[in-house]
Amino acid sequence: MGVQQNYIGGEWVDGAAERDNINPSDLADVVGTYAQADAAAVARAVDAAKAAAPGWNRSTPQQRYDVLEFVGNEIMARREELGRLLSREEGKTLPEGIGEATRAAQIFKFFAGEALRIQGEKVQSVRPGVDVEITREPVGIVGIITPWNFPIAIPAWKIAPALAYGNCVVFKPADLVPGCAWAIAEILSRSGLPAGAFNLVMGRGSVVGEAILTNQAIGAVSFTGSVDTGKHVAATCAARLAKVQLEMGGKNPMVVLDDADLDVAVGAAVNGAFFSTGQRCTASSRLVVTEGIHDRFVDAMVAKIKSLKIDDALEAGTDIGPVVDESQLAQDMKYLEIGQSEGAKLAFGGERLNRSKEGFYLQPALFTETSNAMRINREEIFGPVATVIRVKDYDEALAVANDTAFGLSAGICTTSLKHASNFKRNAEAGMVMVNLPTAGVDYHVPFGGRKGSSYGPREQGRYAAEFYTTVKTAYTLP
Hints:
- There is one protein chain.
- By secondary structure, this protein is an alpha/beta fold.
- Helix content is 40%, strand content 23%.
- It has a seven-stranded mixed β-sheet with strand order 15-18-19-14-13-21-22, with helices on both faces.
- The protein starts with a strand and ends with a strand.
- It folds into two domains: 3-248 and 453-476, Aldehyde Dehydrogenase, Chain A, domain 1 (3-Layer(aba) Sandwich), CATH 3.40.605.10; 253-434, Aldehyde Dehydrogenase, Chain A, domain 2.
- Keywords: Oxidoreductase.
């Protein structure tokens, strides 16, 4: 295959170095070799975006629709191929990988339609004879920095609206998973998009990401990643008054009440806590369970976890693939030790597993007898590790659910309309699920949270316009 290059100003460009992309299911499998950009490459990408901006900012809705529809159609047609690539480089099971590729296609197609629906307002002035028009215009150049856990969907839900609203893009994917990002860039290179309107710069966050954050020509930065890095992104952008959008961590509660359907509750908890190897910011990492159903719930959870197949992400029948890399596995193992040292009971799991191919396999772990004050209930683990917190009743469950520095997603399993309605109103989270996993969202509605989980305007759906456009009010005296 050779080295997969960066894409700058409509041309494929060598990097300052190279990096192998390793399959976490099979460490002997090199997915590909990808170029590493440096700060000079970012500067060239920004210059290319600046040159393209006047034309693309003023492109017609039809031009933008055609580009995004082309990309969406090709990803959809190649969703099995791209899903396999995703599963190889990130470790999601193949059905999850194909599902994520399908979602990326749907996102591009949705924003193709949004490009045709950009609206303004004409209102009466308080002054006689004066016309007032309110319109949305592109921000200009948008820096996009994405994480490794959703290597095609998250780039899609940032790149598609950025282009739909007429912005130019400088895109840095996670260094760990460049394959899907490169595939999107290659499709965009054939979409009819003007040279420089989209640029791909792969490499380390400390080099490439920092160069994006500090470049004065980049008017907005959209970032998804860790809380600590997000705070740095916010501070750096604020110092130069750039617009910023952050999606960060979660410590999401799943409340299970005595009246819950046990099968529904266990299904939602296992899916939310452990699928995608628990590597989702929306994962159900805290299971808040009332005492009347607690023991039956724990027994059913353990039985279900034991039935799960943990193996190669590409192998048929695999329920859970590997952890993404060695450092993430080490972090998961560290928290397993911390939980036991705090007095939590490891009810099941937590063992490093050996399979036919060398990979980063970890048995899903369930802690019981935990309190919400423990570190394993305060800090994001980002792996297949969940805790059970026993509570007396709904009121205590709601209090515990809200007792967190995060506020991304929250769920409740109950057959009580009263409690479901109360929880939707009072859960301190950006997204609330009733009898559903806390992970798993639609692509056409807002995504985001509150507290330490999110900062800035929401992502996805028509709410994306709040970040990717700026509002202009024009007054005219005819």
